[in-house]
Amino acid sequence: MAIQIKDLRYVYLPKTPNANVALDGVTLTIPDNAFAAFIGRTGSGKTTLVQHLNALLIPTSGELEVDEFKIVSKKRKNKKIKELRKHLSLVFQFPEYQLFEETVEKDVAFGLKNFGVKNDEAIKLAHEALLSVGLDEKYFQKSPFELSGGERRRVAIAGILAINPDILVLDEPTAGLDVKGAKDVMSLVQKMHENGKTIIMVTHDMDLVMKYCNLVYVLKDGKLAYQGSTDKLFDQVGEDSAIEIPPLYQLAQKLKERGAPIQIENIKSVDDLINQVKGWKKRHE
Q1: How far is CA 281 from CA 256, 259, 262, 278, 285, in A?
Q2: Domains in the chain and their CATH numbers?
Q3: Could you give the C-alpha distances from 3 to 89, 132, 216, in angstroms and in order?
Q4: Measured between alpha carbons, how far is 107 from 111 in angstroms, rounded to an integer?
Q5: What is the 3-state secondary structure (H, E, C) of 216-275?
Q6: Can you list the pairs that 137-142 forms with residues at least 24 positions away whose Cβ atoms lie under 8 Å?
Q7: What is the pLDDT along the chain (285 residues), one digit of tens a residue?
């Protein structure tokens, strides 16, 4: 199993009048090569949880295992944190705001050099990563601040790809992007998953969850309210979790309730639903 979380608890500002329990006894497993999403209303603990995955936050109590790496509570010493962060990398919401170097290639190479890669090799790997996200040589010497929002997001992802983590965590990967930019970024992430990487994302966009993910975890008030496949999500999560069913899946559910043999788990687009309905109609003509 790629990731196992056991009884994870995290308290902001402990032992103060403003103490806030952000995570309260969360236990879950994320298997290798999953494409998983954490969802839930604002303040449910999603971002707090994923920041534990590479030890940006350390548990107040409980523990996590990320393959061979173990993260334990503040009372005990954690080891190999640098190696963990190479194995599992986190792309923050609006990561392009963290770009700061003079040129695109230097920004992508920065993380590599931080991990001890020499400059020439870091630049070479940066170029390969930029090409892999669709940014060719004409972008290498540009300032990151000359680029569009979608291009800056690609640069930020290239910086992670250059490090070549096995697990990639993205916090709201399409936030602030236009339709084309969002589609380009998610196509890139999907390709990374197809190439064998485990993908974990935090998102409010249920269309993204249903289109790309095979596992979903719902957090509510710091507790795990649901873990499982996307196709059973709407049957088991109540309205108080603030999960909005996308119109496509509302329609699919209504058709299923009326006797159509709809396989919701196989629906990723309008065309998928149309093809299922056409197939059903042909069998009854």
Answers
A1: 13, 12, 12, 5, 6
A2: 3-245 (3.40.50.300), 246-285 (no CATH)
A3: 14, 27, 14
A4: 8
A5: EEEEECCEEEEEECHHHHHHHCCHHHCCCCCHHHHHHHHHHHCCCCCCHHHCCCHHHHHH
A6: 139/104, 140/103, 140/104, 140/105, 141/103, 141/104, 141/105, 142/103, 142/104
A7: 689 999 999 999 998 999 999 999 999 999 999 999 999 888 999 999 999 999 999 999 999 999 999 999 876 778 889 899 999 999 888 877 778 889 999 999 999 998 999 999 999 999 999 998 889 999 999 999 899 888 888 898 899 889 999 999 999 988 888 888 888 889 989 999 999 999 999 998 888 998 899 999 999 999 999 999 887 777 666 555 557 677 887 788 788 888 888 887 778 778 888 888 887 776 666
